[in-house]
């Protein structure tokens, strides 16, 4: 009996026990699905996040005021003063490098938009900005136009709305442009609709209403308002130098004393990307661990089934040995059966894992992610299947090869 005949016999034995083969393969498929599915979902989420950050540009950073007090040296320090409108204007005038700078503020953090009898949930963010806000923040206009100098100079009641607000209020039946909506007690004429952006925040960037900056300042009333500064410097390769210059300019404007900590925060787009990569790295390790534990349980189940198979086929093993089959050929046959079962389950698990992983990534990223085919994890899945097959098949194969042919033939 040569190797080819042994493989044929192994496949025939698998085909002769279809129900057991299917159930055993399902055990392996579930383990591979958990492994490939989790890792595919993580890769899909990471791809979506990378695309979101890519829209901001490599040399984009923001200057914002710290919102929370923090503990330092055993005592709680007061939170920083808000960034005033005059601070933001001065920074925009004094910062070099020919940067594109936008100044913005959150007028209302949780507002409700209304159009006729239609209204959104009270989770709309009313933001005041200028004409540079949309390109610097990575938005694109799907319908209508951006702010003009006339809109900004006279603080006209015009607005650019996110795609989710447009869908809720107008349900794709009306053209939102030139319609009038009410937000936070004021009426605004829609001049533009932003393209869908999505993201890990559950689509929060699609629930914004952008109005002229000076118009947003009127919402502050007696409360102090803080402004955010976002700069994009696409022609400079050394971002550390740019941010160092920005920090120096802002310290002068804010009159921070020498040796005093900054009274503001500088947030870099690439810092957020690196933090995301680090987090997804930990998630990937955790996902691999969960998948490995699941596969370990599947391999133990396969080992048990193969041991049962050896017991059931004791007489068959005795006949094969009496006809001249060597212990090596007996071992090969049982190992081939275990590996083939694992590969069948692995292929099914990879297909299921691809589907499940991409569905999870699409839901988390708000439908903006692309379909991910993780060739590396698919290869790892196949290698793991073969390894599991060897692990689960080697002991039953050795046990079968050591059976005495005389005793095996007597087995009932």
Amount of helix? 40-55%
Mass-distribution shape: elongated
Q: Tally of extended strands?
A: 14
**What is the CA-atom radius of gyration, in angstroms?**
32 Å
Task: Tell me the span between the first and last alpha carbons.
Answer: 25 Å
What's the helix-strand series? HHEEEHEEEEHEHEHEEEHEHEHHHHH
Low-confidence stretches: 70-75
- Overall pLDDT, averaged? 80
Number of helices: 13
Share in β-strands: 15-25%
Report the sheet with the most strands, covering strand number, pairing sense and barrel closure: 12 strands, mixed
Q: How many structurally independent domains?
A: 2
The chain-level structural class is: alpha+beta
Please write out the topology.
Layout: H1 3-16, H2 18-54, E1 60-64, E2 70-72, E3 75-77, H3 85-94, E4 100-111, E5 113-115, E6 118-119, E7 124-129, H4 133-136, E8 141-144, H5 149-153, E9 158-161, H6 163-170, E10 180-183, E11 186-194, E12 208-212, H7 213-217, E13 228-232, H8 239-254, E14 265-268, H9 269-312, H10 314-322, H11 327-364, H12 375-401, H13 405-410
Helix pairs in contact: 1-11, 2-9, 2-11, 2-12, 3-8, 9-12, 11-12
Describe this structure in words.
- This protein is α+β, with helices and mostly antiparallel strands.
- 54% of the residues lie in helices and 17% in strands.
- It has 13 helices and 14 strands.
- The chain has helices at residues 3-16, 18-54, 85-94, 133-136, 149-153, 163-170, 213-217, 239-254, 269-312, 314-322, 327-364, 375-401, 405-410, and strands spanning 60-64, 70-72, 75-77, 100-111, 113-115, 118-119, 124-129, 141-144, 158-161, 180-183, 186-194, 208-212, 228-232, 265-268.
- Strands 1, 4, 5, 6, 7, 8, 9, 10, 11, 12, 13 and 14 form a 12-stranded mixed sheet that branches.
- β5 (113-115) and β6 (118-119) form a beta hairpin.
- α11 runs antiparallel to α12.
- Its main location: membrane.
